[in-house]
Design brief:
This protein is of the alpha+beta class. It has one domain: 2-Layer Sandwich (Phosphorylase Kinase, domain 1). Helix content is 49%, strand content 15%. It is built from three helices and two strands, in the order αββαα. β1 and β2 form a beta hairpin. The model has no long low-confidence stretch (mean pLDDT 92).
């Protein structure tokens, strides 16, 4: 499962998808090195800020649709 996710992430290049730079494996852990997301992830944004206004919701919805359409 993880190998498929890594292969998928490695093959994608879209402005609304996090880029994968490197995979580091240790004896019992795997680390995915991705680009820095200064705004954080959507889950944290919604749980910290609470409900998003309609304008923000539309903006994020368009970005998600763009990324999913690309995939």
């Amino acid at each position: 499962m993880l190998a498929r996710e890594v292969a998928t992430m490695d093959s994608l290049s879209h402005r609304h998808l996090i880029r994968l730079f490197e995979v580091i494996e240790t004896a019992n852990k795997v680390f995915l090195v991705t680009e820095w997301a200064p705004a954080g992830d959507m889950y944290t944004k919604v749980t910290v800020a609470g409900r998003l206004c309609e304008r923000e919701t539309k903006m994020y919805y368009r970005q998600v649709l763009s990324a999913v359409s690309y995939m």
